[in-house]
Amino acid sequence: MVEMTVESVRINLQTSQRVVILKATKQERYLFIWIAHPEAYAIAIELQGTSSLRPLTHDLLKNVISDLGAKIESVVISDLIDDIFYARIVLDVSGRHVEIDSRPSDAIALAVRTKTPIFVEESVLELLAWPWKIMMKRFLRGPKPKRM
After folding, report:
1. How many domains does the chain have?
2. Fewer CB within 10 A of the end CB, N or C, for the chain?
């Protein structure tokens, strides 16, 4: 697994699609994951250090996990199947290892709130991680249409 950080959240002005950009911590590799507007907003406001008057969904989840005595150990972007990313939220619940299935966008929104490490399986990176120039060209094109 490769540790990554959230480099930014961006909007493609031609398509209005949002993307979260992950950057490997020890190499020049980027992973772009197209996400929905609510999750992009949730990630962006946390990265900017702002907050809403009331807890957003990811703030609520963070509070519930903490109040139940669990700790988020990491987030893992674990797979890519039929152009859909999969993720796991890894918890320590009183010494017990628990993994929760999640959409990557939700897992990342939670990770930025809890300062939790984000990892990506090497198999996912081998398929989609590229240098910055190539990724920006792909971003400007927008996501490829879903296969039916």
Report:
1. 1
2. C
